[in-house]
């Protein structure tokens, strides 16, 4: 296996880790937004005496807001995440790459048969020994974001099942 193939494996691990980080961030944002919007809308609905029109309007607002958050916090960032973007993130986190990773990502796209790529890839591989993708998006960050999403979901379920007063009814 040549240096370019091994560097491509590094790119795959890097992109996978960045995707996981973005998914966990999106899940936390969605969970927090769902909880906050639900609480605000329930208070508004209580003020409006849970009229059928206000309940329908609140549902539309809630689902539209969550759909927008899903698009802007999950879908679009994941679509924008490509090899060049991943290389930029790695270059920011590990300046010792000295733009080699970005060079390989850009040049392999336009001139994959360029012999210069193999030399640059070999130099970049030396840095990958210490530049693990797990140092860019740590396990702790992923676990924290997923825990926040889970806590928001559990709180929403609790509010719906056993919430106090009108909060339970409205949820």
Tell me what the structure shows.
It contains 7 helices and no strands. The longest helix is centred in the first third of the chain and has 45 residues, at 3-47. The mean pLDDT is 92. With 171 residues, it is an all-alpha fold. The radius of gyration is 23 Å and the shape is elongated. Helix 4 packs antiparallel against helix 5.
Low-confidence stretches: none
Global geometry:
elongated
- Beta fraction of the residues? under 5%
The radius of gyration over CA amounts to 23 Å
Helix-and-strand structural type: mainly alpha
Q: Mean of residue pLDDT?
A: 92
Distance between the termini: 57 Å
Largest sheet: none
Count of individual beta strands: 0
Count the helices. How many?
A: 7
Helical fraction equals: over 70%
Spell the H/E element sequence: HHHHHHH
What would the keywords be for this entry?
mainly alpha, elongated, single chain, 171 residues
How would you concisely characterize the structure shown here?
The protein is mainly alpha-helical. 82% of the residues lie in helices and 0% in strands.
Task: List the topology elements.
Elements: H1 3-47, H2 52-80, H3 83-93, H4 100-110, H5 115-128, H6 139-162, H7 165-170
